[in-house]
Design goal:
Helices cover 30% and strands 13% of the residues. By secondary structure, it is an alpha/beta fold. The protein has a seven-stranded mixed β-sheet with strand order 3-4-2-1-5-6-7, sandwiched between helices. The protein has a three-stranded antiparallel β-sheet with strand order 8-10-9. A hairpin with a 6-residue loop joins β3 and β4.
């Protein structure tokens, strides 16, 4: 049973609210911009605004959400049904140009985030807010659930010396915000020039909810997050993008598995990993040895040995710690076969990709020196962010 109504649904049924928006409208959205009945936001906006619905914008992976991986840009196009422009904000620009914004009075944002710092849609939003701060354009965020709940915080806070398009702001890996709340935090803490921002809140969403608690249908927000369950392990697996290991792209369970052709997973699990994980005291997960065959990306048509991370108890599972521990063990197991991915990554040439992903170089050094879990805990300094998180909370 559906328990939560997303911002899109609230807006769609509130005719008095709709009447507040008299001018021309743009919509930033993607494949997952659906209501509780799986109606896409573009159809809803066309029915509400008619010819005042002027432009569509898409984030990374495109409006149609079919472009793989980072540094794969999408083109601007024209919508085949609505016959209006579709602009890509992962193209030659990450920021809407003046020409793209011309004639727009109200810019709506309806994007499903995954609750992890390395996911770029929140930065597409904050770049948009910065662009609109000096224009007479209202930005309206249609809020959606944080799929890995809105109260659990985990991981190191980004060091802004390592800022990039996969980490613009000083937030932890699990930031515990909805996209609407993150937009408000940006306005309160991270920018001097304020935009005209409104958040249309959800109804029925509570901070402890995971996506599977909402009763909503999951639609993939990017090509490799096909299941809501993938969001739970994403903070553990995403950093493998910065290594020579496959993070499962090219398989049917991307970003839930990792592996390498030189890993024999069953003996490694039985002789070492299982004991290491038990000694760690980490709970709420299981590591399962597997073999997999990527059909694209790293190791195309080469059998990889590796592991799938299963969240067996989502409330006690600490994915950031589990992922860092797995990375540490696989780094030392592979020895000379292990390689950190070389730049560029997300168009940055002067930083190590793993450091961009982690938002610091300290975690790479922790892996290389085989640091302890106590040392890892010391890298997670969340007191200030916890205060900011409570200050901005809408729910």
């Amino acid at each position: 049973m559906q328990k939560v109504a997303v911002g899109l649904q609230i807006f769609a049924k509130d005719t008095l609210l709709q009447q507040q928006f008299k001018g021309n409208v743009a919509l930033l959205c993607h494949n997952a911009s659906i209501d509780g009945s799986c109606n896409h936001a573009t159809f809803i906006f066309k029915s509400i605004f008619g010819n005042r619905f002027k432009k569509i914008f898409g984030p990374q992976h495109g409006f149609s959400t079919d472009a793989q991986d980072n540094m794969i840009e999408t083109d601007h196009t024209v919508h085949p049904y609505f016959n209006i422009p579709v602009y890509s904000l992962y193209s030659e620009t990450r920021v809407p140009t003046d020409a793209m914004l011309e004639g727009i009075d109200h810019f709506f944002v309806d994007l499903q985030d995954v609750g992890c710092r390395m996911y770029t849609y929140i930065y597409t939003l904050t770049l948009l807010l910065e662009k609109c701060a000096n224009k007479d354009i209202e930005v309206i965020i249609l809020d959606r659930p944080n799929p890995i709940n809105g109260e659990t915080l985990e991981g190191n806070v980004l060091d802004t010396a390592f800022a990039s398009f996969i980490g613009r702001h000083p937030i932890p890996v699990r930031h515990g915000l909805t996209i609407g709340e993150l937009g408000l935090m940006h306005q309160k803490l991270w920018t001097k020039e304020k935009a005209n921002v409104k958040v249309i809140q959800m109804q029925g969403w509570e901070r402890q909810m995971y996506f599977l608690d909402t009763g909503l249908s999951w639609a993939l927000p990017s090509p490799n997050i096909a299941r809501a369950e993938s969001c739970l392990v994403f903070p553990a697996t995403v950093m493998f993008e910065g290594t020579c290991l496959s993070e499962g792209r090219g398989t049917t369970q991307p970003l839930e598995i990792m592996g390498h052709p030189k890993i024999e997973p069953f003996s490694l699990f039985a002789d070492h990993l299982e004991k290491t994980m038990m000694r760690s005291g980490l709970k709420g997960f299981a590591i399962r040895p597997i073999l997999f065959l990527p059909t694209f990306h790293k190791y195309v048509d080469v059998v990889c040995g590796g592991f799938q991370i299963h969240a067996t108890n989502k409330t006690t599972f600490q994915p950031w710690r589990v992922g860092q521990l797995m990375l540490r063990e696989l780094f030392h197991h592979l020895g000379t076969e292990f390689k950190w991915l070389e730049p560029p990554y997300e168009y940055i040439h002067h930083l190590e990709p793993i450091d961009i992903l982690n938002g610091t170089d300290k975690l790479r050094h922790w892996v290389e020196k085989k640091g302890s879990l106590e040392d890892l805990d010391d890298l997670e300094q969340l007191d200030l962010y916890k205060e900011q998180h409570q200050l901005i909370s809408l729910y």
